[in-house]
Amino acid sequence: MAEIITPYEKFACAYDQMMANVDYVRWANYIESLLRNYKCYPRKILDVACGTAALTVLLAERGYEMWGLDRAEGMLAIARQKAATRDLDVQFVQGEMQSFDLNQRFDAVICTYDSINYALSEEDLATVFQTVSTHLEPSGLFIFDVTTEKNIAQHFHAQTFAENREDYSYIWKNVYSYHNKICHTDLTFFIREDELFRRFEEVHVQKIFEVRTIKKLLNQTGYKMLGAHDMYTFNRSNRHSDRINFTAQKEA
Q1: What are phi and psi of 247, to 5 degrees?
Q2: Residue 1 reports pLDDT greater than 70
Q3: How far apart are CA 119 and CA 98, in angstroms?
Q4: 118-126 CB contacts, 8 Å cutoff, 24+ apart
C-alpha cells in the first residue's frame, strides 16, 4: 500500500533531476533585470517556496543576503546541503506561504515557478499577498509568476508522464477542470531503500488566476502592480503566454 505524504516531501529526492531542463541562470538574470528596471537595489531577499534552492543559491552567489522559505522539510534539507557545499550563508526556514512569520523585513521577495498557483482561492491568494507585505520594507518589490490556463491545458491536461531511474521511478498524472480552473496532479514515486523500492504518493492541486484577479487582490492588499510580463521579457502578457511574471511594489 502506498504512503500518502505532504507534497514535495519525497518529490525532493528527484526534483533537481526532473527539473534539469530549467534554466535557473536565465531566471536569476531576469529577476535582476526586473529589479534594475524598477530601480530596486536590494541587499536582503526572501525566496518564498524556495524548494531545493537552485535559484536561492545562485542569487546568494551574486552577493545578496538570501533567505529561503518552504513548506517541505525534504526540499529544505537538500537546499541546506547546496548552500553548505558552496560555503554560502543562507537562512532556510520551514513555513507556509500563507502564514509564515520570520520577524524580518526584506528589500524584495520572490516566489517562482508557479508556486503562487498553490493558493486555491482568492482569499488564500490575498492572504499570501498580505503575509508577504508584512515582510517587505516600504516600497519593496514582490516578484512572482503564475502558470496559465493555456499552458496547463496544452501541456498537462489529461497527460501522464513517467520515468525510470536507478534510484527512483515516478508516474505523474494531470487533470485540469475548466469549470473551477483547478489542476489536479497525482504523483506516484517508487524510491529505492537498500535493495527494495518503497511506494509513495503525493497529490498536488493548483489554481489558475486571471491577471485582472491578481491585480485586484494586489491593490486590495496594499501593492501597486508594476507589470505583468510574458516570462523572461518586458512584453505585456497575452493569451499565448505560458507563464506570466508579476512585479508589484508595496506602498510606502
Answers
A1: -125, 125
A2: no
A3: 8
A4: 118/49, 118/204, 118/205, 118/206, 118/207, 119/207, 120/182, 120/205, 120/206, 120/207, 121/207, 122/209, 122/213, 122/217, 124/98, 125/209, 125/214, 125/217, 126/217, 126/220, 126/221
Q: Residue 20 has which C-alpha cell?
A: 534539469
pLDDT at 112 over 70: yes
Positive or negative, the CA dihedral 20, 25, 28, 30 is negative
CB 249 within 8 A of CB 132: no
Beta bridge partners of 191: 168, 198
**Which of the two residues, 164 and 62, has the higher pLDDT score?**
62
Residue 11 is predicted with a pLDDT of 63
Which residue, chain included where needed, has cell 537562512?
A: 91
Identify the three-state secondary structure at position 24. Answer: helix
CA atoms of 214 and 82, how far apart (whole Å)? 33
Cα-based distances in Å from 207 to 3, 116, 135, 184? 25, 9, 24, 9
List the domains of the chain with CATH numbers: 3-147+210-250 (3.40.50.150), 151-206 (2.20.25.110)
Which residues are paired to 190 by β-bridges? 169, 199
* Cα–Cα nearest to 4, from 216, 243, 250, 203: 203
Residues β-bridged to residue 111: 144
